[in-house]
Amino acid sequence: MAHNIFKGLGIALVTPFTQEGAVDYQALKRLIAYQLDNGADFFCILATTGETPTLTREEKGEIKRMVVDMAGDKVPILMGCGGNNTAEVVAELKTGDFSGIDGILSVCPYYNKPSQEGLYQHFKAIAAATSMPVVLYNVPGRTGVNMKAETTLRLARDCSNIVGIKEAAGSLEQVDEIIKNKPAGFDVISGDDALTFPMVACGAAGVISVIGNALPKEFSRMIRLEMNGEIESARKIHHKFTDLFNLLFVDGNPAGVKAMLSEMGMIENVLRLPLVPTRLTTMQRISECLKFRL
């Protein structure tokens, strides 16, 4: 099995927009530089938090080029490549430009709700279509289907280039079952900021983080402390984040983290429909929390 290089703090990179709704490439450059300077271990681009379904092919290509140019020689880059049409994902893997990309993140098929056997065959076909490392993405709250631990483990054992899973089912029992039985070289990565502390305690290799866009230094410090066995110090940081974790997602992702980044003066608080900014009450609570951040 290939070795997983996506460990520690991964940034689920947002896509900043101008007030007019265009991609704000200058703000994106600032974000990437800020995150590299403050503890990012890898980037996850063109996935959920990046509002990828609303981006054009040209915008996706330019974002990918910018991240590779700025970060490709510094940290690994994981790029979203998934969908609910297996043949289409396979074709993209065979014909797309993945230069400078170190691995792909592929989400469970959404809307059509496949069986566990369907999930297995879908990801087996994806793994066979590329030589790159593949990280599975299980997020039943968005896809409508939970990939069970037994299916994840079957894929980990049968497909040598499936190196990990971004697990966001919200079940520590499922996380623990995967970690307990996984083959060497396969890692579980947290897909939920609020559960990162307990997941790392169970043996997770890190997180693909939303809050890391805004507070990479603080969040990466928590992860490093915990991985070094300094549990009490890490727990204190985790508890200081609790209110922000809740506010990040109360009005949907990435509305919460974009509000946070806007409050910090990093980007405009603009999303593309069908997503809209957080409610004013949420924005005010985020502002209050940030006044007392670490």
- pLDDT averaged over residues: 96
Helix content, binned percent = 40-55%
Q: What's the total count of β strands?
A: 8
Order of helices and strands: EHEHEHEHEHHEHEHEHHHH
Total of helices: 12
Termini separation comes to 39 Å
> Which term fits the overall shape?
globular
Structural class, please? alpha/beta
Strand content: 5-15%
Query: Uncertain regions: pLDDT < 50 for 5+ in a row?
Result: none
Rg on CA atoms, Å: 18 Å
Query: What composes the largest sheet?
Result: 8 strands, parallel, barrel
Spatial order of strands in the largest sheet = 1-2-3-4-5-6-7-8
Can you describe what's shown?
The protein is of the alpha/beta class. It is 46% helix and 13% strand. It is built from 12 helices and 8 strands. The chain has helices at 25-37, 57-71, 86-95, 116-128, 140-143, 149-158, 172-181, 196-202, 216-227, 231-249, 255-263, 280-291; strands at 8-12, 42-45, 77-80, 103-107, 134-138, 162-167, 187-190, 206-209. It has an 8-stranded parallel barrel with strand order 1-2-3-4-5-6-7-8, surrounded by 6 helices. The longest helix is centred in the C-terminal third of the chain and has 19 residues, at 231-249. The protein is globular, with a radius of gyration of 18 Å. The protein starts with 7 loop residues before the first strand and ends with a helix. The mean pLDDT is 96.
